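Worked example 3. Consider a protein that binds S-adenosylmethionine.
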Amino acid sequence: SDHQLEYPLNPQAMDWSKLYPAYFNDNTKPEDLKKVTIADIGCGFGGLLTALSPLLPDNLILGMEIRVQVTNYVEDRIIALRQQHAKTGGYNNISVLRGNAMKFLPNFFERGQLEKIFFCFPDPHFKQRKHKARIVTTTLCSEYAYAVKPGGIVYTITDVLDLHEWMVKHLQAHPLFERLDKEWEDQDICVQTMREETEEGKKVARNKGSKYVACFRRLDNPPL
Ligand code: SAM
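Given these inputs, the predicted complex is written out as structure tokens:
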């Protein structure tokens, strides 16, 4: 349960140097510290992280995953990739953290810190009485609007039509998000990557299932 979860009191209290050691050394001035700008919520086995790493080399990318074993697996996978690519410094920009994204997101991220946040094949929670456990709800949309900067993007993909419609309904109803059209999706490299490089995306393709995509732009804060 959440009792065993470690999380910082606030984003300033978070020590990122263990997660991205290549970007931090003792001489790094506080104002030069690089920040995580991309989050993969419920990253599973890390397929999206490893695919995004070379595509977005200037960003620090973080996977957040609630299952201990799965998080450990992704950690090992990233360590191995870093060793294999030590000469070029590849994969230093991705990392994984065990955490419950539904509860502790504002502990990790400052207001407007994120440029992109991904929800790839989140657990569907099919039963009506379980819907409040879904990762996109009205309350959580406000948390995501807080963490994502104006102009930033929320990415969603699922093979469950009912969940797709649910996520679209909640994000569209939120005054700080605007859905992007199919033309935008078709030209965006990250949409293609989440369709093809996530473990779930591959599984759905093998089973010849459908993938429903919806992306949203974080709008500017309204004038006070
Ligand atoms: N995104 C991956 C993919 O597309 O292959 C994994 C999808 S898997 C169906 C959903 C993942 O979300 C699981 O690994 C699960 O443990 C994780 N998860 C569920 N609730 C979570 C939460 N509140 N915080 C973080 N991770 C969560």
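Take a moment to read the result before moving on. The pocket of S-adenosylmethionine is lined by residues 41-44, 47, 64-67, 70, 100-102, 120-123, 198-201 (CB under 6 Å). The mean pLDDT is 94.
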